[in-house]
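Final report, section 2: Outcomes. Of the targets proposed, Vacuolar ATPase assembly integral membrane protein VMA21 homolog is the one most frequently requested by collaborating groups, and we therefore present its record in full.
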Amino acid sequence: MSTETDFELVEESERKSSTSESFENVDENKEEISSADEAEETLEAPKKAENQAENEPEPEEELKLPFVDQSIKDDAEKPAEKDGEQLVQDALTQPIRADQEQFYSPEDNRRAITLLILFSAMMFTLPLLVMFTLYYWVFIDYFHLPADRAMLYAGICAACVVVAICAAFAWIAWKEEKEAEEKLKKLK
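The predicted structure is given below as tokens.
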């Protein structure tokens, strides 16, 4: 079932786009608004004289056009947002409140940095040492495995060492946090 539509040929002078019609409507609305404003002004002239005598300022209404997006105007009226650098600068220059005083001492900070460096070094060196040692001396020399199988087992053992180092770091951090909580409870 197809419906056939007959189209008329229209000359160029009769053609109108939807946008041209909307602009004509806006122009008509402007004229209506301006003529309505003039009529209101003539009717309100005696009232304005009374209001001016009383020195009461009258709020002015904005002319809202239908094709203007209000959000554009709202965005223009907003204060400029701060960028990341400005936010960081503001955070660093604000004074510290009493409830936000530093709980950890410089000694605690030094210990945390030392542990971070130590565990980072262990994450790099220990898996390589374990892999090399197990590959050559254990899996090839002792068990006489083929090279590909020995490398696979050595790689698995190195991955286990990495997991063990991460677990040790997490355990130490958890233990330090528990000690800090107990210390805080004693202070209160």
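The radius of gyration is 40 Å.
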